[in-house]
Amino acid sequence: MYFRDFLKIFLRILIVLDIIVDLPVTCTKCLCCICCPWAEPRWASVNRGVLICDECCSVHRSLGRHSSQVRHLTHTPWPPTQLQMVQMLYNNGANSIWEHSLLDPASVMSGKRKAIPQDKVHPNKTEFIKAKYQMLAFVHRMPCRDDDSFTAKDLSKQLHSSVRTGNLETCLRLLSLGAQANFFHPEKGNTPLHVAAKAGQVSQVELLTVYGADPGAPDSNGKTPIDYARQAGHHDLADRLVEIQYELTDRLAFYLCGRKPDHKNGQHFIIPQMADSFILHQTCHLLSLFNKLQLSNHLFEELAMDVYDEVDRRETDAVWLATQNHSTLVTETTVVPFLPVNPEYSSTRNQGRQKLARFNAHEFATLVIDILSDAKRRQQGSSVTSPKENVELILKSVSSRHGSEGQDNDQPDYDSVASDEDTDPDAPTGKGNRTKVLIHASHEYIL
C-alpha cells in the first residue's frame, strides 16, 4: 500500500520534470490523475492531453465537450493515433500548460493550490477543475501592451510553423493561447493542417483536428490536407484524414448499428434501417421534408453537430454507468442528464440542445437516420438554401408522430441557466411534446 502511494508520487515528479518514458495506457495503476495526483486515471481529456480519475472525470463531463472531450481509456473505441497523441502530451507534461501559474512558488503564498484526493468532489475539485479548464485561470498569459506582437494572428503563424516538427506540447500551448487551427496563412496559401499532413506529423494532425482543423479545407490551389498527405507518400495519414473528415456521420452510424463505412473502398455513408415499420414510415416522411424544405448547409451542419454532441453524451453516460462503483460514485451530482451549456451559443440554441435528452431511443434514432440520409444527399452535390420556417416545420413533424403518447415528467430535463428568456409555466412536459419543445429554440438555426 505504502509502496504503491510512493510510486504514484514518484511518477508524478517524473511527469512534472518531463522525463517520464512512454507507458502503456492499460497500466493505469502506474499513472496519476493530472487533476488530483494520487488517484488512478481511467479517463482521458482528449483536447487537454491529460489523464483523469473517475471523480475528476465527473466534473470534466459536466463542463461540456467545448471545454473537455472525455473518453474512457479502455471501454471506448480509440483511433490508435489519437490515443498516441494523448499519451505523448501526458508524458511530455502537457499539464504544465494548464497549471502554469501554480508551478510558481508565489502561488503557494497566495493560497492557490491544486486539488488533492482527500478533497470533496463538490465544491473543492469542481471549483479547481472549472478554474483550470473552463476559466483557464492558470494558463500563462502574454503581457498586454500597446505594441504587443503576440496577437491571435501571430500565434497562428507560429502554429503554422511549429506543426512541421514533432514538438506537440508547443502547439498545444499555442492553441491554448488563442492560435487558430484553421488559420489560412496569407503568404503560404495554406493552413497548419496542410503543413502537418505534408510533413507526416501524425500526432500534430490529430491535435489540430481535435481543435477543429478541417481536413477538407482547400489551399490557394484547391488542394486539401488529404491531397498533401497522399502526394508526400503518407498514405496511412491520408486515410486517417478521410476518417476524420467523415467523423460526424461515422459516429452517428456507429451509434445506431455498430458499423462504420469502408472509406478505403469509397463507401462514405451507412444509413441504418429501422425495424419498426411505423418509425420507418416517419423517417421516410421526414426525409421528404428535408428535400422539400431545403435547409441550408450551414444550418444543417449546426443541427448535425448538436445531435453529434448528444450522441457523445449518451454513449459516455453508458460507459460511465458501466464502469462505476454504484455504491459510492453514481450520485445525482455525477450524472450529466443533458448537454451542458456552451457559452458560445445563444440561450435558445442551448435550450434546444439540452432538450434533445427528452428523445427516447426510437425518437432519437429516427432523427439520426434523417441527418445521415440528408448528409449523404448533400455530400453528393445538392447544395441548397433555406426558407425561415424549415427547421420549425421539420421539428413539428417529428413531434406530431408522438402527439398521442402522454407521459408525465415532473422534473425538467434542461438547465434553466441556459436561457435568459422566460418560459411558459403551463407548457406540457410529457413524452408527446419532447420534440415540440425544441421548436422555440429552432429559431437560432434560422436567424
UniProtKB/TrEMBL annotation:
The UniProt entry, under InterPro entries, shows: Ankyrin_rpt (IPR002110), Ankyrin_rpt-contain_sf (IPR036770), ARFGAP/RecO (IPR037278), ArfGAP_dom (IPR001164), ArfGAP_dom_sf (IPR038508), GIT-like (IPR047161), GIT_SHD (IPR013724)
Keyword Metal-binding present in the record's keywords: the answer is yes
The record's Gene Ontology cellular component field reads:
presynapse
Q: Which Pfam families match?
A: Ank_2, ArfGap, GIT_SHD
Please state the span of the N-terminal signal peptide per the UniProt entry: 1-28
Q: Which UniProt keywords apply?
A: ANK repeat, Metal-binding, Signal, Zinc, Zinc-finger
Compositional bias (Acidic residues): 407-425
Q: Where is this region: Disordered?
A: 399-436
Q: Name its GO BP terms in alphabetical order.
A: brain development; cell migration involved in gastrulation; regulation of ARF protein signal transduction; regulation of cell morphogenesis; regulation of G protein-coupled receptor signaling pathway; synaptic vesicle recycling
Instruction: List the SUPFAM superfamilies.
Output: Ankyrin repeat, ArfGap/RecO-like zinc finger
Limits of the Arf-GAP domain:
8-146
Q: What is this protein called?
A: G protein-coupled receptor kinase interacting ArfGAP 2a
Q: Which GO terms describe its molecular function?
A: GTPase activator activity; small GTPase binding; zinc ion binding
Q: Where are the ANK repeats?
A: 188-220
